[in-house]
Design goal:
With 288 residues, this protein is mainly α. It has a single domain, classed as ABC transporter involved in vitamin B12 uptake, BtuC (Orthogonal Bundle), CATH 1.10.3470. The protein is 73% helix and 3% strand. It has eleven helices and two strands. Strands 1-2 form a two-stranded antiparallel ribbon. A hairpin with a 2-residue loop joins strand 1 and strand 2. It starts with a helix and ends in a 10-residue tail after the last helix. The relative contact order is 0.21.
Length: 288
């Protein structure tokens, strides 16, 4: 195995991992603050992908610029879902939130299928360039996603550690009762945190549309991989989502190249299971 080939596979793995990390960042924020798993996270990404697709095909808005529409739009959607739906369910049985998310998942898929059919869509005419650097091949769109995943992780870390609202979100994620006693408006924090998580799903959808075919069920694989990354990195760990996503992408790249493409998902699940058996709280999660 030549060093150049190894480096190229590593680069491909990092670019794939950037996709997983970007998809998981919003989900890990929600999971860390509210201790719930939004299984409809991928479907929200799918709706953002459709939004970006129509912004491009109808108005000619570049997907990279459409984030200025999808970010605030999906932040509002997330705040609405939390304030008027999920907040009401938190006082009920724990499964009620999961059932609501499952209902949201099927609603989003059927809504998309009804309005936009099951046909596969792609951004026709959108330029995806490949270039060489130091003997390695890079794809502009996948590289942009990797940089976006890193940038989002850094900015989210700064927000959570340096701002008043960020510290309130961290306090709520660590202990709700203590945060409330310290004067934190827990309900408001949960609305903001869920809104940010859904906004990040919108960001991921906008950036992923140039890379993937678009159809109503496209979000389901992203939900599965995002869940793996969240538990792998540790619920609520922003850097854990980044490292977990990149690690998963590298495992898939090497397995797909040297064994078989059909085995890459199996290898990712095996690695996930092994790590959870050793560290059930994830690589960067907090031990309860």
């Amino acid at each position: 195995m030549s060093s150049e080939l190894t480096a190229q596979i590593l680069v491909q793995g990092l670019m794939i991992g950037g996709i997983y990390a970007l998809a998981a960042t919003g989900l890990t924020l929600i999971a860390g603050v509210m201790n719930i798993i939004n299984i409809a996270h991928g479907e929200l990404m799918m709706l953002a992908m459709y939004t970006t697709y129509f912004l491009y095909t109808i108005f000619g808005v570049d997907p990279l610029l459409s984030v200025f529409v999808t970010l605030p739009l999906f932040f509002v959607i997330g705040c609405f879902l939390q304030r008027f739906c999920i907040e009401r369910l938190l006082t009920g049985p724990p499964m009620s939130v999961i059932i609501f998310a499952a209902g949201l998942l099927f609603f989003a898929q059927n809504f998309a299928a009804f309005w936009w059919t099951q046909d596969f869509k792609v951004l026709r005419g959108y330029a995806t360039l490949t270039f060489d650097f130091m003997g390695l091949k890079f794809t502009t769109t996948r590289l942009a996603i990797l940089f976006a995943a890193i940038l989002v992780t850094v900015l989210l870390y700064i927000f959570l550690s340096k701002t008043r609202m960020g510290r309130a979100i961290r306090a709520t994620s660590q202990n709700i009762e203590s945060a409330a006693l310290m004067g934190v408006n827990v309900k408001r924090v949960r609305v903001i945190a869920f809104g940010l998580g859904v906004a990040l799903a919108g960001l991921a959808g906008s950036l992923l549309i140039p890379v993937y075919y678009l159809y109503p069920a496209v979000g389901t694989p992203f939900s599965v991989m995002a869940l793996i990354v969240v538990f792998l990195g540790g619920m609520g760990s922003v850097f854990g989502a980044l490292i977990g996503g990149l690690a998963l992408g590298i495992i898939e790249a090497f397995t797909g190249f040297y064994l078989a493409l059909e085995l890459k998902d199996i290898a990712a699940f095996i690695a996930f299971i092994i790590i959870l058996l050793v560290r059930p709280w994830g690589l960067f999660g907090r031990k309860e």
